[in-house]
């Protein structure tokens, strides 16, 4: 299984800027509700914020990989967000985050979460995916970039 197989192009979220991670998660959660992927946007926002408050989900090189479990999700979801002007996720490398890889599901998918997180971290560390996504002009371009860098992670 590849990440690209789990990504619905319509769940790619593009925005210019946010004041902070709380406002990003509010906007992203509303986007998921609008797309029919979450019933309670406030609950999803709170779960993401709670996860972020435990420890930053920034993984360096301009990327973050938040992941949550909730009965709100009837299936495993993988999404990508592009924040064009960057956002402070309190990354250990002190850099702004431009690309957010989000993983969401109920608690039955813990192994898939872990495999996906490891795959994302390897991809960010060993490729130029973040720099290319930062320059992308559309969801189609982001999808194509992920296709280019994705590899089997089973």
Strand content: 15-25%
CATH top-level class: Alpha Beta
The rounded distance between the terminal residues' Cα atoms is 6 Å
Instruction: List low-pLDDT spans.
Output: none
Number of helices: 6
Total domains: 1
Helix percentage? 40-55%
- What is the architecture at the second tier of CATH? 3-Layer(aba) Sandwich
Radius of gyration, in angstroms, nearest whole number: 14 Å
Oligomeric nature of the chains: single chain
CATH T-level fold name: Mannitol-specific EII, Chain A
Quick check: average pLDDT? 92
Q: Can you tell me the CATH superfamily?
A: Mannitol-specific EII, Chain A
Shape: globular
Question: What is the chain-wise order of helices and strands?
Answer: HEHHEEEEEHHH
- The number of distinct β-strands equals 6
Major sheet size, sense and barrel closure: 6 strands, mixed
By secondary-structure content and strand pairing, the structural class works out as: alpha/beta
Structural commentary:
The protein has helices at residues 3-6, 21-34, 41-54, 110-126, 129-134, 139-149, and strands spanning 7-15, 58-60, 63-64, 67-69, 77-87, 97-105. It has 154 residues and is α/β, with parallel strands linked by helices. It has a single domain, classed as Mannitol-specific EII, Chain A (3-Layer(aba) Sandwich). Strands 1, 2, 3, 4, 5 and 6 form a six-stranded mixed β-sheet that branches. A hairpin with a 2-residue loop joins strand 2 and strand 3 (63-64).
